[in-house]
Amino acid sequence: MTISHFSAVVLFSLFTSIVFGITQRSEPKKMAQFGALCFVLFVGGTIAASWLMWLIKH
Amino acid sequence: MTKAQGYAVAGGKAVEENTVGGVSPVLVLLAGWLVPGAGHLLLRKWWRAGLLALSIVGMFAIGIALKGKVYQMNFGEPLDMLGSAGDLGAGLLYGLARFLGWGQDPVLVAVADYGTKFIVVGGLLNIIAAVDAHSLAIGRKRS
Q1: How many CB atoms lie within 10 A of CB A10?
Q2: How would you class B73 by CB atoms within 10 Å of its CB: exposed for 0-12, middle for 13-18, buried for 19 or more?
Q3: How many Å separate Cα B42 from the centre of its chain?
Q4: What pLDDT digit, counting tens, does each position of B4-55 carry?
Q5: Which of A50, B4, B60, B71 would suit a FRET pair with B91, their CA atoms being 20 to 30 Å apart?
Q6: CA-CA-CA-CA torsion sign (A28, A30, A31, A32)
Q7: What are the tens digits of pLDDT across the range B102-141?
Q8: Do B115 and B66 meet the contact criterion of CB atoms below 8 Å apart?
Q9: pTM value?
Q10: Which residue in chain A is spatially nearest to B131 when comparing CA positions?
Q11: Cα(A11)–Cα(A31) distance, rounded to whole angstroms?
């Protein structure tokens, strides 16, 4: 099996965010909110870090 | 849901300990570690158990499919020890991988290295999930 780097980021972020959301909050609504926040921060942070590395290189 | 209350001594201080649903917290912790989501399943948290199992087994399965490395106990290499500690968190999945010889090929490409990380993180997430189930079982976490 081969996946792109971006797909790996999305899958990693999705599964990790689900576990973080369920384990770090007590109410279902808060779980969903925290999970979504984690997902956005994971993916957004990776994209931001990627652009930063691109800028450093160029 | 029934609640039986007892008392435990921690650090010389008596603290209240709740046993939710009549299931032993130690059993919940062990089940949650051995089988992803089983701790929450014992506590009848169906949706949480299903999502946790899907996420953790998914991480582990993707890691194996990407030809990630499953660490072996190697006390001579600190990084291998840390990796195997993370992998061990997956409980029976780790035992199954070792038994079937999964993840023993050398890591040659970047995607396989991602797979190694998926496997380690899946194990670590499973430990978090098992501790969460234990916290629910003793009443430290309300719901």
Answers
A1: 16
A2: exposed
A3: 15
A4: 444 444 444 444 455 666 899 999 999 999 999 999 999 999 999 999 999 9
A5: B4
A6: positive
A7: 999 888 888 899 999 999 999 999 999 999 999 999 999 9
A8: yes
A9: 0.88
A10: A23
A11: 19
Q: What is the mean pLDDT of residues B87-96?
A: 97
* Residues of chain B contacting A, Cβ within 8 Å: 48, 51-52, 54-56, 58-59, 62, 65-67, 110-111, 114, 117-118, 121-122, 125, 128-129, 131-132, 141-143
Torsional sign, CA B138, B140, B142, B143:
negative
Return the structure tokens found at B4: 């039986």
